[in-house]
Amino acid sequence: MQLIHKTTKKHIAVILLFLIFSIIFRSTGISSLPDSLDPYDESGYLYDAKLINQGRVPYKDFFLAHPPLFIYLLSFFFKVTPNISYIHFANILILSSIVVFIYLISFQITKKNKVALLSSFLYTFSFLIFFYSKTLFIEPIISLLLISSLYLYFQKEKIATYLFIILSSIAPLAKIPAFLQNISLIIKNFFTRKRLFCKENKPVFVSIFISIAILLVLSFLVPNFYQDTIEFHRIRNYQMPFLEQKVPNVIGLAEKEWAIFLTGFIGCLYFIFKKTAKEQVKAISYICFISSTFFIGVFKVFCWHYLMPVLPLFCIISSLFITKLSEKIQKLKFKNNFISSVTKKYLVFLIIILYILLTYKHVSDIIEYQKKSSEIAKDIVENIRKAPGDTIYTAYPMFAVLAEKEVPFWYYANDTYAASQLDIPVEDSVEIFKKSDIIMFNYRTRSHLLKEAEEWVEENCDLIYKREDVELYLNKGK
């Protein structure tokens, strides 16, 4: 079986070049320190991985937020090497390898090297991917599983179909919204072929059935799986007012990634309603449109990383739509011969230059922010390490891992789970503080801390460190 078409073999050197450049580009300044002073999700996943490697269950209902695949995979990486730098680098390798599939799919659809290169370029220089390239988020793994399975779905060989079923069945075991890709394929085939149970939908249904079957088995093994998984997102979804969080985040993403998401969204609508669009293009358009409208429209809270799994597909659609527009413009007759010549030969190149110029400031700001955060994080870790005692209360256990301290209570163990993982009862807070040698606060934990618990800290603890909004207290009673 040839998973790589003959027509693409001559472009392997170009793919490797993008792959190498992507790895180098994202590896700048990589360290074992968090790139943010608020490494919330990353911090929790890392500490859960550490607990698994110690033979402990990190919380009573393991599926509280997501199915377990990602955290067990992270625990494997963490067991192989406790150096977080290597885990960050593995994450970068995953993100960079996605470039290969972007190139292959784009070239398979169009047989045009410039479209494949533009798709790969948009992803390689994406602000969003650069922003999350040094974190331990679930999304890069899901992105790789989904885009590789989609590439296999577009092939005709039987073995490719079997591999598609395997990979697309695994993705929802890391995060349930990964089902959206298969659901989108079913909807696309239903509207284009006017049949629900057509030949193209059979492997998709099989994949969904396998994923659901595995999740059902796990739900019997672990109590309250569906209740906790769904409640976690339902409660969190309705904590924050719409105008305070969703609208600014959507506008901010559109501003920073206009070349990918704005042109991509318009491109989705264009190709969905264009009768002569290729089947692969329609499939990608349906996936992008349904996934983005689901996260932006259905979820009350919207975070940028929600769209990371479909970012590669948005890059493909954007490049297709941009080249389609350039072809339309090239057919126009300009009175000025110079303008006509430039639009015919260099329009796509000019768009790339414009994209670089407009995103440069955003990317440079991120680099500066990450550099500053890493410097402060290093200072925080050193102060935690040299503070007396072995235990620390913190909402960011990554700092505990780096400083070789233990967290006596991790939020997932709470029987009466609160969506923010911070809104714990005051009596529980005080009991946790009593068991901790060091107590770490920042603006997030301060904002959720009840008055009685804060008063207990002021009476029974000494402030030993303060930088930015981070405070370290030493428990005088320990």
Give me the secondary-structure topology.
Blueprint: H1 6-9, H2 12-26, H3 40-53, H4 69-80, H5 84-110, H6 113-124, H7 127-132, H8 139-153, H9 158-170, H10 179-193, H11 202-221, H12 225-237, H13 242-256, H14 258-273, H15 279-298, H16 311-330, H17 337-386, E1 392-393, H18 397-403, H19 426-435, E2 438-441, H20 443-448, H21 451-460, E3 461-467, E4 470-475
Parallel strand pairs: 1-2
Antiparallel strand pairs: 2-4, 3-4
Protein described:
By secondary structure, the protein is mainly alpha-helical. It has two domains: 6-32 and 83-331, no CATH class; 370-475, no CATH class. Helices cover 67% and strands 4% of the residues. It has 21 helices and four strands. The protein has helices at residues 6-9, 12-26, 40-53, 69-80, 84-110, 113-124, 127-132, 139-153, 158-170, 179-193, 202-221, 225-237, 242-256, 258-273, 279-298, 311-330, 337-386, 397-403, 426-435, 443-448, 451-460; strands spanning 392-393, 438-441, 461-467, 470-475. Strands 1-2-4-3 form a four-stranded mixed β-sheet. A hairpin with a 2-residue loop joins β3 (461-467) and β4 (470-475). The model is unreliable at 238-243 and 411-426 (pLDDT under 50).
